[in-house]
Task: structure prediction
Amino acid sequence: METSKRDKNKNRRKKPISRCALGIVLIFVLFSPFSSLPFPSFVPTGAAAFSSVAIDVPPTEFSPGDTSEVIVTVKNNGGRDAKDVRLAFQGTEVLSPVGPTVYHINTLNSWSSKEVKITIHVKEEAPNGVYSIPVNCSWREYYFDPSVGYVTGPEQTVELGLSFIVRGSVVINVGDVTTDPTDIRPGDENVEIRAVVENSGEAAAKDIEANLLSNDDTFKPSWSGTDRSYLGRLNSGEKGEAVFHIDIAENIESGKHSIPLRITYKDTNGVEYEVLREVTILVKPKPDFEIVSYYTEPESLSAADTGVVLHVTVLNIGSEKAESASVRMTGEADVPFDYDVKSDFVGNLAIGEEGEAILKFGVDEDAVPKVYPLGIEIRCTGDRDIGDDNVYVFNKEIKVEVSSSSSQQDGFSVPGFEVLFSLLALLFVFVSKRKGV
Result:
């Protein structure tokens, strides 16, 4: 009996001790440095049972030729840590990293992320589109195994990529304009115009063609196709030269004139575009003349007339003063005139001023009655006060009528009278000789 009671009491004393020991163990486990170690009963399953490294960038848009820094987010989307993470960024024909291309991250805990910065350069003339650069990624999985402790797994490798938008534009502008001759005057023909066409955009343009547009008679192509110039391809920042040949109207006003220029081109994807620009040229002043009146003394001309006086009045209708102006008759092969005073000096004529030239000629004896065209040449120099030393020649024409022949003038107008008169004279000589014999 005593023994059994003693045993029972011993058992009662043991229970409190075992409970206390259990509490101590629990406290030690909860607050010890090893409390964060996974227990076999909490080993994750599914997606959380491994490490998974991924990369991401915010939507980024480049222009051709850009060099910019990009922040890349490196994520571990798994339940196990990753260590010795290595990212190797590779270039392509369009995109290429600048500077370091390999980045290391010692540890990337589960469900966490870190950022790395890389610099990307976009090739000049890159066509519009979305481009990716490949990224080789490797790491080792790091986790706790209750049976052996912390474990570093074998190296894992995946091929990742980063995508960027490249969007460039073509900007066509017209730069310097030169002409040959340098000083353009009204009435000039075959004037060469050279216009610099520049692509100041970020993208390339191809099949570039420039067309001068003239909707009036002020400017005309010198010959077929000289108002059109083909330039081909211009990369970003490149320049080309469009060449045109035009004729300038005689009645054009002096000063600056802008000629519309239509430029068509295609981008690298073959999409067609059209822009309107202009070419500005300077037309300098020039004297010009017209014959405002003329008359002869005598007013009615006949064959064999001599000392005919021709009065010609000219007017400077140009845009600058004419210096040393003179008027001259030009001989025509079929005009029966003999020129006694062929030219006359008029002098300096301001804009809108008239001058008279007095010329003299005679009419041939065999002149047939009709209206004859008489060439008049007006010659002058430009206004030297404004640096115009050019010599200008203007060819005009007037009409001079011969109203009667010499036989009509003597009162004989019978056809064939001259022949009959000659026969009678011969007969008279023959009869005289016979009588003398």
Observations:
- The two ends are 223 Å apart (CA to CA).
- Confidence is low (pLDDT under 50) at residues 1-47, 408-415.
- The first helix runs from residue 2 to 31.
